[in-house]
Amino acid sequence: MLSRGAASGWVLRGAAQAGVQQRPPPFRGLRSSPRTQSVMPSWVIDRYGRNDVLRFTRNMVFPIIHFPNEVIIKVHAASLNPIDLSMRSGYGATALNMKRDPLKLKSKDTEFPLTLGRDVSGVVMECGLAVSYFKPGDEVWAAIPPWKQGTLSEFVVASGNEVSFKPKCLSHTEAASLPYVGLTAWSAVNQVGGLNQSNCSGKRVLIVGASGGVGTFAVQLVKAWGAHVTAVCSHDASTLMKELGADEVIDYKYGDLEEQLKTLPLFDFILDNVGGSTEKWALDLLKKWSGATYVTLVTPFLINMDRLGVADGMLQTGVTVGSKTVKHLLKGVHYRWAFFMASGPSLDEIAELVDSGKIQPVIDEVFSFSEVPKAFQKLERGHARGKTVINVISKK
């Protein structure tokens, strides 16, 4: 497992190196008998805001199986993603609340108390009547959709089709770093971008923003499929990119990035994790009239709904993506948006790649469950090399 340390090379850093001195809340060991409890420890927010809205409680309502295809998972480890920072601040609340309560049957602010965290690696504790693929005691991993209660908790409920067997070669701490970023990259590269093991060999792939969670996974994924990979990151991440298999590494701080990339042969596929001004010139780096595709993970979908409301936001989003798709199609390249999509079957395929040694977790730092606010502060500072992981069963 690769992880970034303060010293030379890549080592796993302990939570003690978080750097932010904050008194942890009172904490007790986690209980393990779901049938005998009605509440559980969890990190929640009661309003949107900055890090001070995070609250530790021992009295979060225990998750209940509402549908026959659901399972309850005892969380051993979770991890943080940029979406957790966004959700903490209220970004996307309009769309997510619509998904939580599409018929508006509940009163306002029904999302609170809200548990953040999307990744989970743990053990199945209970199964719905329609679940036959899993049984209590199975070690599993999953990425929970953002409209559901999250994984910074003792237990979490998930649909069976969102869950997969954990890779055998990984610990829970290692496994928890992969599901959300893995599925986001899989959505962009495979389901939206159309690349797979049979058609990726020899293709030139450019990944902008390659040193984050999604980028480190995407570099390994397309390299496992035989692509030639060019990674864009800062100089201090170049060693990591090479270790993950990148053929070329471009330092975006070293001169004009567009001019640096123009000196290289044209690309068959571009994954943009950065957005902003990149979109204005990146599509000119694609091979024209060859099926070459640009996929961005930075879209205005949620912010449009927050700003304009559900109906107008969806309309504006549709107009934007439609006009850009047509504009670039007339120039001989494909323009696409991609989003995270929860999928147990996709995690099955990712697990096979992990167990075969083709993809490995990249962890920047591990925190105990009592140090969740420190983990958020770490993520908020940016420039992470891989993932920030929470060891939920730690009693520290």
From TrEMBL:
The UniProt record lists the keyword Mitochondrion: yes
Any single biological process term in GO: ubiquinone biosynthetic process
Domain Enoyl reductase (ER): 49-390
Any GO MF annotation of the entry: oxidoreductase activity
A Pfam entry, by short name: ADH_zinc_N_2
Family: Belongs to the zinc-containing alcohol dehydrogenase family. Quinone oxidoreductase subfamily.
The name this protein goes by in its record: NAD(P)H oxidoreductase RTN4IP1, mitochondrial
